[in-house]
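INFO batch 0412 | record 1 of 1 | parsing
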Amino acid sequence: MDGSDTSMRAAAYACGLARRQRCRLVVTYAAPVLTWAWAIPGATSMLLAAHQELETELRAEVQRAAEEMRIPVCFVSRRGDAYGCLREVAAEVKADIVVVGASTQAHHVLGGSVASRLVRLGRWPITVVP
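INFO prediction complete | emitting tokens
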């Protein structure tokens, strides 16, 4: 979950799936690593604060939806690229399925989106929500 429209739809879909299957939901937020921020004075602290604020908002949204749907939920926050973080968390929790939002970025046509990379990995069923 990263706050994008597709990730929010994927989270809603996963909540419904967890409710119907009566299982636990693990929501992952992957905060990007700030590799270039050191070059701009003050950028690192500003970007870290923005990521922290987004994480807090997403955590509250997930908790609210989980309480409303009466499903057990765990919110995991990691620092790194989305593909690596999702892969690690899914392996750690022994996920039955991974639900991700479809990419809306044009450059993913060449390099592959998070969803397509997870599909190619072939460890879990992947549901891609548009």
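INFO post-check: The chain has a mean pLDDT of 87.
INFO record closed
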